[in-house]
Amino acid sequence: MEAGKDGWKTESLMLFSENGRGGRKPTSVPGVFVLKLPTYKGSSQRLSIEINPVDASGNPTKKRGLVIRNPIELRKFRELIAEGKLKKLVKKVDEVNSLVVERPKLKREVEAIEI
Q1: Of 29, 43, 75, 92, which one's alpha carbon is 20 to 30 angstroms from that of 83?
Q2: What is the pTM of this model?
Q3: How far apart are alpha carbons 93 and 96 in whole angstroms?
Q4: Are 65 and 76 in the same domain?
């Protein structure tokens, strides 16, 4: 299978699109996956990219990561992630989360049926 001039193996993506089962397929870049999206409201099946951090075993750490469907979305996500205020917000959210004390879970008393 030959790589295209940009280095990607278009043929393997075509095979996954045509014959692959739906779902997530890993790539050679840890944390980058190709998703096969199902048909939806008349649109045909499509491929998209998922960015999802992986654990030591290479498994995704989130149920669903950041899904990118086209170059325009990638550009917009890059702009949003590069926004300086986002970094500040993430730090503040982390601070607040570390201050929140988990409430003890109350055990529900199960009503017994008198016999």
Answers
A1: 29
A2: 0.70
A3: 5
A4: no
